[in-house]
Amino acid sequence: MCGFNVFAVSGLQYGHLKSNVTLACGKSPVRTPVVWHLNHSSQLPWHQVTSNGSLILLQTDHSAQGDYSCYDNQGLLVHSLRLRLGYPPGPLSISCRVPSHKYVLCSWADSADTHLPAQYTASYGGKNTEKECVVDASEKHCDIHLPGFWQVTHILRVTETNALGSQTTIVILKLHELLKPDPPESVEAKAVEGYPTRLHVSWTFPSSWHEDIIAFPLTFQVRYRPQGSSYWSELFSDDSQVVIRDALAGYVHQVEVQARDEVNQWSQWSEWSAPVYAQPWEGQYQKFNTNKEIFPSGMFPVFTKPETSTAKSHNPPYEDEGNLDSHTVGHCSSLSAT
Question: Which domains are assigned to the chain?
């Protein structure tokens, strides 16, 4: 008996995990007996074969994936296909970051693994407006340029599509509340020659904010403490430098800086910058004193009084104080413990 006059056709078929999946044996004539193989083996998962030669895989799991082939009763290949199993998309978990007034960076994650490749589209808009959110599908994020802060709320729609379906997730954004600058950059802390209780701290605006410097100024908070102490002293400044006047003489200090939009009271403080370390001036042969006793956890010298400053000054004054003044008090102070 001759084999069927049918050419083998390779294809790709998708199916739902944990459900029944039917594979057709190409154009096999009705009631013609066929034999199915999975990955060149006659060992098949839980299944049934219908009268027309179709293979029904029952309550599939991942072991049912692979290359299927059906053969006629002469052993000739009739049809072959590759089966991939997964789930249709579900709701996405979306988060958005607003590092400046000109960019919104949104990313998302699947609520559950679909086990299938997916494509994403995203749109963004306010009342009566809609813009494209440029998608990087491999990284699962999209970027919005010039979002329009004058609108109170915005709507972001992200649609995930795979071979088994699609799902659109919608989130409402309030950009003025999400606005959170990146941390200040190039933070430096240096001793001030001749002053044993001072440190000069400087930094630059975050690079993501550079286009906004004039229209949207930042305010800054500096925190510092002797290395090993649990208590922070704090300074505020609208400039990109401050002078700490109450550092503990002879001790290395940890210094960090954070930033916030100066005008928008609903915005968030940035993360703290990476810590830098400096020790106040100790004379001609100053060096970091690594042999000083570190403060036990929870202790802080009671005679230091942190200072808060808000005045802008590109040349911080060092005058009007003697070299040994270690008890300078500002017009307001703050002290915090972590």
Answer: 12-86 (2.60.40.10), 92-178 (2.60.40.10), 185-337 (2.60.40.10)
